[in-house]
Amino acid sequence: MRQPTTAALAAEAEDLRTECADHPEANSPTGWVKSRFETCVHQPVNLTLKRPNQEILGHLAFDLWVLGFAYDGSRRVDYVSSIENIVPVHISGDDPATWVLSQQFSDTVNLGDSGTDPVITPPTDTLRSAPLAEWVAVPQWTLTYTSPDTGGYDSTNSQIVAGRITLAMTLTSPTAVPWIEPDMAHSNIRFDYAGPVAGKHKGTVFTDARVELQFSLSDPDVDQSARHILDAQQFPERTFPSWPGKTVPGADEPLHRLINADQQQTNRNQAIKTCNDVWGDYSGTPLQCDEYPFASTKERGADNLRYSARLIDGPDNEEGGRRLNSMYTANRILDGDAFYVTIVP
Asked: Does residue 1 lie in a domain region?
């Protein structure tokens, strides 16, 4: 997703809201993670305000929206947060006009998954605290988080900063016990400057997104690759190398990207040896040795026999490889990042 103008961000937010409304998983602190670049939380909230003696002062209902946008090409993430459809119910004591609703955003860095000296730069204002009438008048606000970089690509330093952005909320009144929810919404993010292996040299992603590479059995450009993958996933006994109890990952058990070119070549050589052992010398034919899991995954280690090698048409094999690489760069899949492979009719 490209970094938008203010008007474009508003349009993107409206589109995401429309989609988000159809996903029940949005009603949770994690929300619906649409992709590596879009996420949303939509929670209908009903809460009760009480005095210390447990006397009920009233109730408050509202809709919480938090829409998140990360960017391929920029170390930045935007959040559009709003509180809407506010309905106070007064029972006794304080007038709801005196109730104050607050949103506090915060950031933390995951040092174990980050590089050297990781920094997340928050916006100037991360707290909005106002009476209900002000939220009704202006329900929405926008926050932008960034992460500094060295200003250039370094093949030895991807400048990774992994972290979490969390929204806490409170409701207070002059005499009530404050209502406090420390985790109304959160998202896990990663800034990087990984260079050409990620497509655009730098970017930001939501790391909880499920990334899938999808092939279709009815797509003539990759139907042989698709059949090979489906057999390996569902019918491993039909594939080579053959051994009792064989299973192959990628459908429910994720694959993880491997960047090291030497290890990739070792994986390819192992698959080619299997093809030669099973089908003989196929040089001079239009066939190529296809392998799954792919050579560019950590699951294809030299000592790991949970793979399949099969001869398929060369153009099909090559197109499958191009689509795999496109998936890597479209989703900023870095070394060790997980993804799944799905075969559809």
From this structure: no
Q: What is residue 135's predicted lDDT score, i.e. its pLDDT?
A: 98
76 and 180 part of one domain: yes
- Residue 294 and residue 258 share a domain: yes
CA angle 137, 141, 143 (to 5 degrees): 170
Q: What is the pLDDT of residues 106-157, one digit of tens each?
A: 999 999 999 999 999 999 999 999 999 999 999 999 999 999 999 999 999 9
| 116: containing domain | 6-206
Whether residues 201 and 243 share a domain: the answer is no
The residue written with tokens 């916006």 in the block is: 123
Token match 């990628």: residue?
A: 250
Q: Which positions ≥6 away from 1 have C-beta within 8 Å?
A: 12, 37, 38, 69, 70, 71, 72
Residues 28 and 147 reside in one and the same domain: yes
Q: Which amino acid is at 100?
A: V
Helix (H) or strand (E) holding 161: strand 161-172
Tokens found for residue 114? 């980050």
The angle that helices 314-330 and 223-234 make with each other, rounded to 10 degrees, is 80
| Structural domain contains residue 200 | yes
CA 241 to chain CA mean position, Å: 34
Domain end, chosen from 179, 206, 233, is at 206
Please give the model's pTM, rounded to 2 decimal places.
0.94
CA distance 110 to 162: 5
Q: Which long-range contacts (CB under 8 A, 24 or more apart) does 275-283 make?
A: 275/309, 275/310, 275/311, 277/240, 278/240, 278/309, 279/311, 282/311
Last residue of a domain, one of 188, 206, 224: 206
Same-domain pairing of 183 and 288: no
Give pLDDT tens digits for 272-291.
Answer: 999 999 999 999 999 999 99
* Domains in the chain, number: 2
Alpha carbon distance 222, 228 (integer Å): 10
Q: What is the DSSP string of 237-296?
A: GGSBS--TT----SSSSPEEB---HHHHHHHHHHHHHHHHHHH---TTSSEEEEEES-TT
